[in-house]
Design a protein that fits this description.
Elements lengths: L2 H18 L2 E5 L10 E5 L4 H11 L5 E5 L6 H9 L2 E4 L12 H13 L3 E3 L18 H12 L6 E9 L8 E6 L3 E2 L9 H19 L9 H10 L7 H11 L17 H10 L1 H11 L9 H27 L2 H22 L2
Parallel strand pairs: 1-7, 2-5, 2-6, 3-4, 3-5
Antiparallel strand pairs: 6-7, 6-8
Helix pairs in contact: 1-2, 4-5, 7-8, 9-12, 10-11, 11-12
Keywords: Acyltransferase, Membrane, Transferase, Transmembrane, Transmembrane helix
InterPro entries: GPAT/DAPAT, Plipid/glycerol_acylTrfase
Protein name: Acyltransferase
Length: 349
């Protein structure tokens, strides 16, 4: 991919992300080496939004491992390959497809040997629950293959904590925290590959549990979430939240009932809806019901906003220009943009 095209697409998506989110906080960029092989290992909650947030702010140009079922048709394959996306095959894709991963692992090893970056999700699935799930051995297999092919190479692992306030709602806030670098080679034992895999997974998992909210108990999960929500904790600060989780872990769920917070900004939300009525109604009535899972809600909503909102503004301008005047059309469009930015950053939630 040419540097100009990559930079252009990256700038468009980054502008869209910062316009779509009420707040994006990024920390730990100093932990990312500039000229060494890197493997970014984030927790996974919000489908494609997770990928875009890291890709636009990590100061590297990473390759992405992507589930193979999206590589359908020659056109999509070309597009995904152009944007440095590599297919990864899972059991659900068919046992006979797993052999394709061998060539992908070799490609990943070659990418790392060139000093480039890989981004993949070690949990191997996405879920909105605020906990770090058991890590898959897929990323450790790539590392082991890399060390087998290039014995003198080291790979820097960068755990990444993605922390959303409300990943399936709008507008949302997110904190992206890049953790301390981890040397993968220091944990590699050629005579015991199983131990190598377990050691690397445990180290990365422990780091992720410090970089994002981690509620370890399944049975008591809803109780702890209710307590955190009631206390209005800042989910953008996982260190503080995890201390609260430890305090709540031993409480009996039946001793506490969550309190539903009354939304005192309904009037502002209604005003926002009226100002953008056609655009919002198309989303709510026709597109939102088709989103397959809540984990994809942010991704679909962001894509709809990025692609359709400029069209909505253009059509509004044209209608006002035809029936009123160019000055009125321009004035209304500018005022609408300013109001929407205010609603997004200050007025809503």
């Amino acid at each position: 991919m040419s540097g100009f095209t990559y930079s252009l697409v990256k700038s468009i998506i980054k502008t869209g992300l910062y316009g779509y989110h009420k707040k994006i906080m990024v920390s730990g960029l100093e932990n990312i080496p500039k000229d060494k092989p890197v493997m970014f290992l984030p927790n996974h909650q919000s489908a494609l939004i997770d990928v875009l947030l890291i890709a636009t702010d990590c100061n590297r140009k990473p390759f992405f491992l992507t589930r193979s079922d999206v590589f359908k048709g020659k056109l999509l394959k070309r597009i995904f390959s152009y944007f440095q996306m590599l297919p990864i095959y899972r059991m659900r894709d068919g046992r006979d497809t797993l052999s394709n991963n061998d060539a992908i692992f070799n490609s990943c090893a070659d990418i790392l040997n060139r000093g480039e970056a890989l981004l993949l999700f070690p949990e191997a699935n996405h879920n909105l629950r605020r906990r770090v799930r058991p890590l898959s051995k897929g990323f450790t297999r790539i590392l082991i293959r890399t060390f087998e092919r290039y014995p003198d190479l080291d790979v820097t692992l960068i755990p990444v904590g993605l922390n959303y306030k409300h990943a399936d709602q709008f507008p949302d806030e997110v904190a992206i925290i890049y953790g301390k670098p981890i040397s993968a080679k220091s944990m590699y034992n050629a005579s015991d590959l199983n131990m190598t895999s377990r050691t690397i997974k445990n180290r990365v998992s422990l780091s992720l549990k410090q970089l994002t909210t981690h509620i370890p108990t399944v049975d008591n999960y809803e109780h702890i979430i209710n307590r955190l929500t009631s206390d209005k904790v800042d989910f953008l600060n996982p260190v503080v939240v995890n201390k609260k989780v430890e305090l709540y872990a031993d409480e009996v769920a039946d001793d506490f009932k969550s309190i539903t917070e009354i939304n005192n900004r309904k009037g502002l939300r209604w005003m926002f809806t009226i100002l953008n009525f056609p655009f919002i109604m198309v989303w709510r009535k026709y597109l939102k019901p088709k989103v397959p899972e809540n984990e994809f809600m942010g991704t679909f909503r962001f894509a709809y906003t990025l692609l359709i909102y400029p069209v909505y503004l253009l059509l509004l301008f044209i209608v006002l220009f035809i029936f009123l005047s160019s000055k009125v059309a321009l004035l209304v469009s500018v005022i609408l943009i300013i109001l929407n930015v205010w609603f997004l950053k200050k007025g809503l939630r």
